[in-house]
Every structure is written in structure tokens, then in C-alpha cells.
Amino acid sequence: MSTTTAETSADVTERPAAAPGKARGREERGALASLASHGVLVTASLIALFPIAWLVYLSLGPDKDDYLHPGRIWSKMTFDNYTFVLQETNFFDWLKSSLIVSLGTTVIGVMIAATTGYAVSRMRFPGYRKFMWVLLVTQMFPVAVLMVPMYQILSDLQLIDTYLGLILVYCSTAVPYCAWLLKGYFDTIPFEIDEAGRVDGLTPFGTFARLILPLAKPGLAVAAFYSFITAFGEVAFATTFLLDDEKYTLAVGLQSFVSEHDAQRNLMAATAVLIAIPVSAFFYLVQKNMVTGLTAGGTKG
User: Would you tell me how many other CB atoms lie within 10 Å of the CB of residue 51?
Assistant: First the structure.
């Protein structure tokens, strides 16, 4: 009995001595993994931020050919390019046009996409599955194929060189994707909420507006951001359907710095930096809901 007791107590005394060694091993591996992950994140951040920093750097060069010798910019940095763009061009007219078209596309597109996605998610009308596939098929046609028929339609409706015409064209691009996105998000909202709304005497639209939409803010934020970016940076449709220089959007106005024999790249860089400001501001407004909205519609449950 004494021998067994002595062996048992010896094992007990030996186990705590081995534990610190294992703990240190785990801590060392954790530190190395943390260092490696931070190194990857820092590298990825530098890769992502470098083009932006380079664009800002080139925008400070006073000459149009400074991009060929970027090392010379450091000694002669100036904000004259920004002054010229803001004072000597139609920048503010382009900005006004871009905001009208982008915000109009966002509001109208999200409204149509939200009602469409909710209807397909909750209602089982004949052909509702095929309807969503039809929306998906519309995204398969390239811009070159759609340009002529759209121009003919807008011409018949007398909407050439109007903001409304361009908004409707952009909605035809944004709505199908946003409808798919919001349909997946609405699928994650319990159907019992709709039933509770009907018990309280709400109409289907009242249930949608007062109960479902407040719960769908993350999905709506993603749809709004996609619609805004689609309209804000598009060039082909805006160049074709807008004829008046004062109605050009920023993306089209940026082309005015490029001619057949010349390209004022310093002014283009400065304008590109200014163009990024409204997009960054809009992203800041919706970024709280962006991550949730991008992942919530991935699975149903």
C-alpha cells in the first residue's frame, strides 16, 4: 500500500511539472501564427492601398508627363491640378449629374428590387421560379448588344439626353442582381413575422413596409451600394445617351482630358481622386450594414 501510494503521489507531482512546457509550446505556436497572420494582413493592406497612394502622388505633379519620371514629382509637389479641375472645368456640373443619376438609380432600383425579391420569397404565384431565372438571363447580354435597342427605346420615349432615361437604363442593370440578393436575404427572415403582421391586421404591403424592411437593412445597404457604384462609374451608356456637356457624369467628364494626340494625365489623376470622395462618403454611410448584408443571404435558416 505504501509503495502504490508513493508511486501515485510521484505521478501527481510530475504532471504539473510537464504542463508548463506544453503551455509554453502552445504559446510559442500562437505567437508565430499571430505574427504570420499580421504579416499577411499588412502585406495585403499595402497592396490594396498602393494604387490609391500612387494615384494621389501622381495628381500632385504639375506636368502632364510627370508620370514618366515619378521621382521628380517629390521636389515640385503642388495642388494646382486640383485648383484647375475645380475652377476651369465643369467638374461641379459633372458631380451634380453623377449624384442625380446615381441616387436616382439607387432609390428606384432598390425599391423595385426589394418588392420583387420579397414577392418571390414569400408568394408562390405561377412561374415565380422562372421569373427569377429570366432576371438572371438579362445579365448575360453584353453592353454592345444592348446599346442599339436601348437607344431606340429611349429615342421613341424622348428620353435621350435626360437623367431619367439614363436612370432607367442603369436600373435595368442593377435591379436583376439586387432582386436576387434581396430574395436570398428575405429568405433568412422567419415567415412567422409575416403571419404576426396579418394577425395584427396589416396588409401584405403593410407587413413588408413596417416589419420586413426594418429587418432587411443590411441587405438593403448592399443593394444600395451596388446600385450607386453601378451608376456612378459607368461610362458606355452615359457617353451614348447624354449629349450635353453639362449633363456629363464624372466618368464621362474624365474622358475630356484625353484627346487624339494628347493626354493630360496629371489632371486625370486629380479628377480621379476627387471622384473617389463621394463614393467613399457613401460607403461610410452604409458600411455598418455591409458585412452583415453580404453574408446573410448566403444560407437559408
Answer: 9
**Tens-place pLDDT, residues 246-257:** 889 998 888 888
Phi-psi region of 78 (alpha: psi -120 to 50; beta: other; left: phi over 0): beta
Model pTM score: 0.77
* pLDDT tier for residue 281 given thresholds of 50, 70 and 90: confident
The Cα–Cα gap between 57 and 37 comes to: 29
Closest among 94, 54, 90, 84 to 267, alpha carbons compared: 84
CB 219 within 8 A of CB 182: yes
Nearest to 178 by CA among 100, 293, 98, 301: 293
Structure confidence at residue 163 (pLDDT): 94
Bridge-partner residues for 110, per DSSP? none
3-class DSSP assignment, residue 247: helix
Classify the phi-psi angles of 217: left when phi > 0, otherwise alpha if psi is within -120 to 50, otherwise beta: alpha
Cβ burial, residue 183 (10 Å; 0-12/13-18/19+): buried
pLDDT value of position 294: 56
